[in-house]
Write a structure and sequence with these properties.
The chain is mainly β. It has one domain: Jelly Rolls, CATH 2.60.120.10. About 5% of the residues lie in helices and about 50% in strands. It is built from one helix and 27 strands. It is globular, with a radius of gyration of 19 Å.
Length: about 325
Amino acid sequence: MSNSVSNLYADCTDDPAAHGREAQVYDAIHAMISPRNEVLRLLPHKERRMVGAWCFVDVFGPTDVHDQVGMAVPPHPHMGLQTVSWLVQGTVLHRDSIGTTALVEPGRAAIMNAGNGIAHSENSPVDHGPVLHGAQLWVALPEHARSSEHSFVLHQPAPIRGTPGLRARVFVGRMGTTVAPAQGVTALLGVELSPQSPHRRNGSVPLDPAYEHILVPLVGTAGVCAEDVHSGQAIYLGTDRDHLDLELTDGARVLLLGGLPFEEEIVMWWNFIARTHEEIEQARQQWSAGGDPRFGEVSHYPGPERLRAPELPNLRLRPRGRRR
């Protein structure tokens, strides 16, 4: 998924070093990812730049797409990151410059490794359902992996961890003894939580105390840390928790994302993650010129559209990290 705001960190400060448990609730930002598609953005945010290596959290829908085009994001580039697509309802057709065509469906994590450069598109298929709802997540690649080979994997269905009162679908990493087919380059956790039944809606899930975590309701409300967190909000939970107690409203579905604090400084601009302004500038020029082998072309995309890179600001993009 692309991003219409070029300088994602313009309003962000460097994150403070992780220092234990927190419970900070904040509201999503409304953002456009294409002329027709609006999302709720929880990361990056002026309140929180990253959580672990998770650096981008967009929630789209639920949107009525009956008799409509639905998602329509033409070819665009990425570098230095992984995209993680997680659907609640509907389907998305993924095409990329390494020749992949894949139908992303609910319950299966779709992970694209951009490495040093890749291009892809995301569209609702012609024969799509009436509702589109899900999350697009980005993971910053550490220095040793950011020039790795690009790839796309549609993983097997995420396993379900049964917890009294709660149902946990682990789509990245591990929760306790439940291990997802998809693993992060750095230590990561991605879980969708929902009530076990209309009458059993509260419980406790195990956490790694070395991780920092964020909870993002997709549907409904989560009661956690004496706070009610609604869809369109998130709560940052900090580190040093070995479990999390929560109560969900009937029909709620929430994302729990976590990971070891990411210690490297990065420059994040448009759809690129780099370490310097010059790297961003070079990538922009290569995409804008067209035909550069770095990103390639989504040659099987059915149309001439191709997202243009925005202009760089009249100032140097500076790396951001953690305050000590």
